[in-house]
Design a protein that fits this description.
Helices cover 28% and strands 21% of the residues. The chain contains 5 helices and 10 strands, in the order αβαββββββαβββαα. By secondary structure, it is of the alpha+beta class. The chain has a 7-stranded antiparallel beta sheet. A 3-stranded mixed beta sheet has the order 6-7-9, with no helix packed on it.
Amino acid sequence: MQATAESDPISLPWQGCHFYFTAVPATGWPDMLVDYTRDHASRMKLIRFCTNLADQFARGEQVQRRSPVAFDGMTSDWRSQKVPAGWIGSWSARPQDGNGRAVGIDDDGTVRYINLGPYGPASPGLYGGVPGETGPRFVREINVLFETWDMIRLTAALSDAVGYRGSWLIGVDLDHLVGHMSQLSDFTAGYLAGPGIAWEKAGYSYATRAAALEVREKATLVTARLLRQLLRGLGTEMLLSQAPFA
């Protein structure tokens, strides 16, 4: 997961937290996904793969979501050396803190995802009422929940594309999370009541091993395993009792 965070295109300091997802094949092989990474044509193939899969998800999902599929709307591509990977991003010019998503695929099969802004702006006056005082920040954990689900399903689809049948080591990380509250506490976004619990630690990190069958057929269960402690800490564990995670 550290290598994914180190690939973040935005330099510190950030306005809020950034979200990282990493899936490493336990028994992968060299150049496992190189057909999607090696050059511009390969990365355009990855963009088409992601676009088609996102369209498939949109047609098949029976739930209303507040954010696009994690890897939908990708328009730019590049190659990195820090990790030997091909990347696609949702921006056309340059990435902006607070707005942007990127998918990275290593030659050897690791799948990475970066969200540059799963947080809401500070809300003056809502807490304390002091003029000019900045209120708390809000992490959009519902977006994080759905994006994790999306990325597990993308990992499964890429596995099928290259015939990989092994397990995966999957991790999530939210950095610079201290002081953020659940988005359900953001009254300006239309929520009427929220838990109002501020995250006390610097960030959130969790990793698990998922069998091939889990990745393909039980992505919601793996998602819940990865994010339950985050949601419990924010006071929104009940999100896991709602579709599609129930």
